[in-house]
Amino acid sequence: MKTVSILATYSQTQILRFSIDKMCLHVKRFFAAINLKLTIDYDGMQI
Question: Which domain of life is it from (predicted)?
């Protein structure tokens, strides 16, 4: 019974880590998109 709970905890941790990684990726993409838009707007203002 103990091994089962250890395995369950392990898989939950993996899922949690996966979700956190996914969230970080989305946040990075989000900021990259904002950065790109700001850069484009800034370039547009400079011309």
Answer: Eukaryota
